[in-house]
Amino acid sequence: MSITLFYQRPIHSTLYLLLSILFTDKLVRYILFKFHSYFNQHKVNVIEAFLMPFITLLSSLFINIKQHKISFEFTLYDYYPHLRLPYRTYIYSNILRFVIQSIFLVFFKNQLKPSSVKEDAVNYFYDGVSYLLRQLRWFDLKLGKLLKRLLSKNKKGPKKSAFKAMADARVWQNKLVKYVILAFILFLLAIFITIPFSLEAQAVFISFILLVAYALKRVKGQMATIVMITLSVTTSSRYLWWRYTETLNWDDPLALALGAGLLLAETYAWLVLILGFFQTVNPLERKPVPLPKDTDLWPTVDVYIPTYNEPLSVVRPTTLAALSIDWPADKLNVYILDDGKRPEFKDFAAEIGVGYLARADNNHAKAGNMNSAMRYTDGEYIAIFDCDHVPARSFLQMTMGQFLKDSKVCLVQTPHHFFSADPFERNLNNHSQIPNENMLFYGLIQDGNDMWDATFFCGSCAVLKRAALDDIGGFAFETVTEDAHTALRMQRAGYKTAYINIPQAAGLATDSLSAHIGQRIRWARGMAQIFRLDNPLMGKGLSIPQRLCYINAMLHFLSGIPRIVFLTAPLALIYFNAYIIYAPFIAIFIYVVPTLIQIKATNSRIQGKYRYSFWGEVYESVLAWYILKPTTVALFNPNKGKFNVTEKGGLNDEEHYDWGISKPYLILLLINLLGIIVGVLRLFLGDSSQIGVLIISMGWAFYNIIILGAAVAVAAEARQVRHSHRIKANFPAGVRLANGHTLKVKITDYSDNGVGIETEHAHLCRVNDKIELLMSRGNKQFSFTTYVCNTRRKQIGLTLKDLSLEKQRAFIQCTFSRADAWLDWQNNFRHDRPSYSFKEVQKTSLRGFSNLLFHAPKALQPIIKFMTNTVIYINSFTPKKPIVHNNHD
Amino acid sequence: MQRVFIKGIKGGLGSTSVVANLACVLKKSDVDVIAIDLDAKSDLGLHFGLPWKYTKGWSNEASFEDALAHFHQDNDGIIFLPFGDSDDTNIDKITKIVNKCKNLNYSDEAWILFDCPSHINLSYYPLEKNDIVIELVNCDAICHSLIYRRLQNLKNSDTTWKHYFLVNRYNSASTLEFDLFSLWQSTLPLMAPFFINSDEVIKESTAYRNVALNCAPYSVANDDFETLAGWLVSKANL
Q1: How close B108 gets to chain A, by Cα (Å)?
Q2: What is the pTM of this model?
Q3: Which of chain A's termini has less CB crowding within 10 Å, N or C?
Q4: Range A295-512: architecture per CATH
């Protein structure tokens, strides 16, 4: 320590000297170094900076700081995870968090350490439970296998011949025997359904049925399905019988009225269920019939493309694809039926050489349009495509065989497949993950209808026989669903209809929820009109199964009122103390829950590939309110209401929430939520004898809230920016680059003005490069001039620009109208798993609630923000689980 | 042993490249391939990596036994015989070598590909029933006339061999080529139901002294040759 230094930094030197008296030279240097670093670098105030090294020194007497230095901070945040950002800076509230968390750690965390005897006991208990579960699972597996073996033995083994001999025996031909046996079966069923059981007996009965149903879970095949259906019919009928005979409260008029409402809704549901089972018990799965080799024997076909207000860009691909259908050119005539009477359509038709038919008036909408066209064309068969349904080249090859095989066939329908996401799929973002609303109908119900010769005409993607149409006086125009009505009339006239479940055309789904609902309203109204004007239950010409199939289709559209009843039923008890199911808690529990489980399991088994459990409720809930009015009006006054055209091919420029359309569900949601709150209050304040019923009602209300939440989620309209929809694909093609090199590529997606390709190899394409896309159809190769619009590692996006009409046609032929374009449609979905499906619905529901908050009106935004922040803030005080690092080393 | 004669309907249609690439794709499917150059320009060897200084071939030797010394094998295992640089070759000598090749003691499943000059009429070759003759054409008006001329000839002579026309250097972006190809496919007999795409890599590969198949396995031409080989196998009588 030199004198000069003393003059330069007097304070520092004094301090140094003072400290030197007390500490060794090394420690002094440490203290001063730390002091400077705290003061200069960490901006701590003088006193604290000076004290800090002493604190460190002091604590170093007790703990080995060197060893813990690094891990100290981490360990702190492991045990106090919420002291990190964003609350790190809140010093004062952090004190409270620290205290609460410390208490939590001291009292709760320590208990987790396996030290005490009690802990051991708990461990043993859980081990025992999991062992038991393992044993049960093993037993279940064995039982399943055993049953499977037994049943398959029955099916395949020598017994089958015996069974067959029985089935083929003469006895069955005898009408009397037939009726006696039928009567006997009905009698047995009636006994099973109507015999009153004590609660215990019912419990045993239902658990036995559930046990059988559960064991059948692993058994594949039609036989097991039929057993499941029988069980479901028995339990549900028993349930309904019980409801009618024992659960109506005749003393309380309010409860009686509400209860009767619920009972009617339940009866409706039961009827639909039974008819649904009947409809889908044995889907036909018809296969195409090959056509004769000699094409001279093939009939002439007119292709109708009715349009009204759709843009030419939608109609063009359809027309071009229709021209490319594989059929002798002299026997195929394509017509655009333009009710919009637009000159550009006329020019387009002339340019590509298809017929253009317009009429003076627009009477009777689509049906009238087609009827008028029938006056000008003369093909033996008429194929109909909505103007957005692009047919595959194989369409007629797949369908026409049915007509040639059986001259009574008047209609062959193929599924409607949509390559764009429908509003449900788009807004819930689950396109091609969860079967959409359509799939149940086209995947299963139509095939089931076909079994009973009751295939419906769906207005598009179908071929009709002209002679049959002439027979019934053309397309039926009395209702707004001309399609179903036309088929009904032809069936009455003794013709047969057929369904081939191979997608042979694809179109655009409706592009907004309101349009979607509008379309369903039209269907619902039309079905109600048919019900009134040409009731399939009455009249001549239909077989009983056909009548049943039609009546089920119509009942489906009357689901509005029952659905709303179900969505509000539990509130009757909560709000009005009305016992709508007048039975003790335990009885309700024993009758309702197992029956529901049984029905759900059966439906999941039958519909699993086409409709996931609980989604049906969501779809129905969205539509319920909107189809309620039109169906009711149409039932009373069938001639009211006009045909509205479903809008397609539009865009949503920005995300928005459709408040108008979700209003009904919001109200339902609100009263259900309120119901839960009231229910909770009543649980604590009310009569203790009501706790059981209250809990059941609240559980039901909670389920309704989940379903309604999902319905609300649908109303948040997602953005739809692409003008043309990308269709996923996977087929080979080639490109020729500007420098003459060729590359093998795979087409991964396409739309009507672009293609996405993938190469295996490095490419040197850059944006705006011009490259030739080579695609093959048969042994012809087509070349398209494209421009690179984006590149990723192996992906290249190409845009088609200014294609001539000829090239456009070729492009459609190479893409949309490929025979295999839509084939993998139904195979993408795995079979339903109810628990997983319920989780998905729950997730969707949560999304609906967050959507609601997110899209709330501006005025409410600050309140919602404040409330969310409050909740988050309060939540930040609750004790957190310490972070456990699994790999400490 | 399957003999395939590949010849351009006129000169300069790329028949030598087709022979070289076809030999390569056949060899890759594990069959033995022998390629014989019957064209006096003697350039088949260049496709298989033979140095340009090496000019000798079967035409330089008096007998087939002496010519055996000129057989080469390339890296893929294709055996080939260059023409050589002798001036006095005539059709008799060519006929002789074609016949002698039958005596090559090789496996029965082997393929022998002959790269035939375009100016020698097919009727001069000792063709047999099981032989396949592929005449290469381009999609242009000259070839269109030549094909019709050739079809007239074929009709008048009693051909026993399997004769086909194959479109080489096809570019579907050209309207004329596209239309001609469609026309030929729908009206002409003996057209192979596919084509070899025009591809820069066939030109480039010779600069590497190799065949396109090895230079650019990702090219469309690669697939075309595979299609050709598969189609030939279905037509072959092995």
Answers
A1: 33
A2: 0.77
A3: C
A4: Alpha-Beta Complex (3.90)
